[in-house]
Amino acid sequence: MARALSSILLVLYIIFGLYFLNYPFNLLDLSGAFSSFEEWIFFLGGILIIIGAINHFRLGRYRY
Fold first, then answer.
1. What distance in Å separates the CA atoms of residue 3 and residue 29, rounded to the nearest whole number?
2. What total of structural domains would you count in the chain?
3. Using CA atoms, how far apart are residues 19 and 35, in angstroms rounded to an integer?
4. First vs last C-alpha separation in the chain
5. Which of 9, 23, 24, 42 has its CA 20 to 30 A from that of 30?
6. Which residues of 21-44 are buried (b: 16+ CB within 10 A; e: fewer)?
7. Is pLDDT above 60 for 63?
8. The pLDDT of residue 38
9. Domain of 18?
10. Residue 61 half-sphere exposure, CB side, CA atoms within 13 Å?
11. Alpha helix locations (H) across 1-64?
């Protein structure tokens, strides 16, 4: 169960990371495909960034 959840989170991180990289550079024209989902993409991307920050600090605690 935990492995499936981490796989899902990995895919979400990759998708949203690619979207956020594409957003300022406009490498691909995605305006028509994601125009109705843009608010949700930023919302979920923000949540994933917060989860990543929490995991970063949790890993830092176990290293030392």
1. 34
2. 1
3. 12
4. 29
5. 9
6. eeeeeeeeeeeeeeeeeeeebeee
7. no
8. 74
9. 2-63
10. 6
11. 2-25, 31-34, 38-63
